[in-house]
Design goal:
Blueprint: E1 8-14, E2 19-22, E3 28-41, E4 48-60, H1 61-70, E5 76-89, E6 95-110, H2 112-121, H3 134-138
Parallel strand pairs: 4-6
Antiparallel strand pairs: 1-3, 1-5, 2-3, 3-4, 5-6
Length: 148
């Protein structure tokens, strides 16, 4: 081990849909912003303050395709990765800089597609029958009938 560590763990919400870029040879990357929030109380005003930090996430190849397929703006995700800074020359000749999170692992926590699907599949709870005979449902009521 070389004595250094570059590891990031984030839980946040997508600020936009995944934007894909495809390269010659079949490789691709997906990019999306991720918002993380810090909530605290201002001690002088007792006001609740929410501070949002934006992170530029990059996923590659199959992981990018999975993210594009299942994620959309507002979804909550857990990611692990590393910080990567890079620079490039813009068309106007200026040097541009960015810092990104190169995602190596991720877990979907909530997706809009999943939430909408669950809403469609969950039947409404029926009204409880006020005349329910609980003894009949449990059996004879004999304690020897317990499964443990």
């Amino acid at each position: 081990m070389n004595g250094t560590l570059n590891k990031v763990m984030l839980i946040g919400h997508l600020g936009d849909d995944v934007k894909m870029h495809y390269f010659d040879g079949g490789n691709c990357i997906g990019r999306f912003p991720l918002a993380t929030n810090e909530v605290y109380i201002n001690k002088t005003t007792n006001e609740k303050i929410t501070s949002t930090e934006w992170h530029n996430l990059v996923v590659r190849n199959k992981a990018a395709e999975i993210c594009e397929k299942y994620l959309s703006k507002g979804d909550k995700i857990y990611v692990e990765g590393r910080i990567k800074s890079r620079q490039w020359q813009a068309e106007d000749g200026q040097t541009k800089y960015t810092t990104e999170i190169q995602v190596t692992e991720f877990t979907f926590l909530t997706t809009k597609k999943e939430t909408e699907l669950n809403k469609q599949q969950v039947p409404s709870m029926p009204e409880p029958n006020k005349n329910t005979n609980f003894e009949a449902q449990r059996g004879s009521g004999n304690q020897d009938d317990l499964p443990y």
